[in-house]
Amino acid sequence: MLDVAAQNGPLFDQLADKAAEVIRSGRYILGPEVAAFEREVADFIGVEHAIGVSSGTDALMVALMALGIGPGDEVITTPFTFFATGGCIARVGATPVFVDIRPDTFNIDVEQVAAAVTEQTRAILPVHLFGQACDMEGLTGIAAKHGLPLIEDAAQAVGTKSPLGPVGSLGAYGCFSFFPSKNLGGFGDSGLVTTNDSSLADKARVMRAHGSNPKYYHAVIGGNFRIDALQAALLRVKLPELEGWTARRRENAVRYDAAFSASGLDENLLQPPPRRFEGHIYNQYVIRTSRRDELQAHLQAEKIATAIYYPVPLHRQKCFSQLGYREGSLPVSEQASREVLALPIFAGLGDARQRRIIDTVIGFLSR
Is residue 188 domain-shared with residue 94, that is, in the same domain? Predict the structure, then answer.
């Protein structure tokens, strides 16, 4: 699905030199490399403040904790996402309120968000899934109407643009991940919290350092959510390459789209992902097919990697059974979980490998 070593290979000398520089410096926690990375990535994303944290999951925790969300509160979100989105809401003691997704983009359905707001709602947490922006115009309108903060889960969307502006800049907080498989992947876990509000930025910085301000004085309880200086330094080496990698992902997506659209296959058999906004960065390229499991098995036999994001939506996970959702509660998400299949899209995929994937997919589904 992703050749991380091949992507990092051309940068190896720079990465090794930067790692050695950090090791020699003796500055491993926060410090100048973290500060420099935060400035550079804030400029790239298009936000005033970027706060490096220990993972994308911890970015969500920092945002929820900084906004004071806890027991008795409800947070509206999507069930069709990585577990951390709902898990972090539960970890702070709040209740995730899952609403269904759009069948085309897999992103949260704005009309259902509007209908789910109650007196207990304290935030809306949309996910820019697979690198495509949510309908932020609709979501910001709902948030403004009810005086609710938006927390953007942009873990898969570094560099994604929406018609309103860059994701991660449109709510109270944006939350990003630099897990190695992301478009901008680190060398272990790391993440980022973004905001355009100076007061919220200060709260996030306090939360990532056990709630201390100044050191050893704690008005609030935070956590150990700091990004390692080594991760920040290595991400600085990779950041200038990100736009080029994203451009090649988009080129790969265009080739997939053209080939699948020209295949003549019924939409039920093969549906490529729509690009609703031009700012899609294709962290994943996810098709839909009613023959998903058969197709995946065939591709595996042909030594072609695939992945299923996500086989079980969050409202059907055992740990959330007490919330009372049943099979059929959120039918669009449940159908998507049976039909989605991610194909390789990484920048270094190459024409020959992509052509083989295309021919194998179309050949199998045409039988």
Answer: yes
